[in-house]
């Protein structure tokens, strides 16, 4: 008799399906797929998932809460769908392997400490819709060598690029 899909997922770490609130995320998860029914990923949902390498985000996703991917040292690339309009404070804080991120059009602000200590982040292109970069947003992004700032940018808060 074949093992249930959930058991295979836990045993091999092939894929974990995130279905939203109340969904318990295993700490050793490596690959995550966000269900199409999810519009917001909960605060700190994947925080400190030390094995998380990649995540497939659904096109129904509109918000990623505070600290969602905080301290995921192996997460190296993420593409936010164009439906995402808001990312939370410290969303990718200390994702030390994150080298690339595609930010969606429609995002108007990058909150404080969103990418702080993403030491592998080397290049970022901000969408034309971004008007504000929060305090310490890219602080200690030691590899950051290029950033394209949009013409409509109105405010860059203190320490946004400190120690870059």
Short account of what is shown:
The chain has 164 residues and is mainly β.
In the predicted model, the low-confidence regions spanning at least 5 consecutive residues are 1-13
Q: Order of strands across the widest beta sheet?
A: 1-2-4
Count of DSSP strands: 13
Helical stretch count?
Answer: 1
- Molecular shape: globular
Rounded mean pLDDT score: 89
Task: Kindly name the structural category.
Answer: mainly beta
The percent range for strand residues is 15-25%
Largest sheet geometry: 3 strands, parallel
Determine the fraction of residues in helical runs and give it as a percent range: under 10%
The termini sit apart by 55 Å
H-E string: HEEEEEEEEEEEEE
> Over the alpha carbons, how many angstroms does the gyration radius reach?
16 Å
Give your account of this protein's structure.
The protein is mostly beta strands and 164 residues long. Helices cover 5% and strands 21% of the residues. It has one helix and 13 strands. A three-stranded parallel beta sheet has the order 1-2-4. The N terminus is likely disordered.
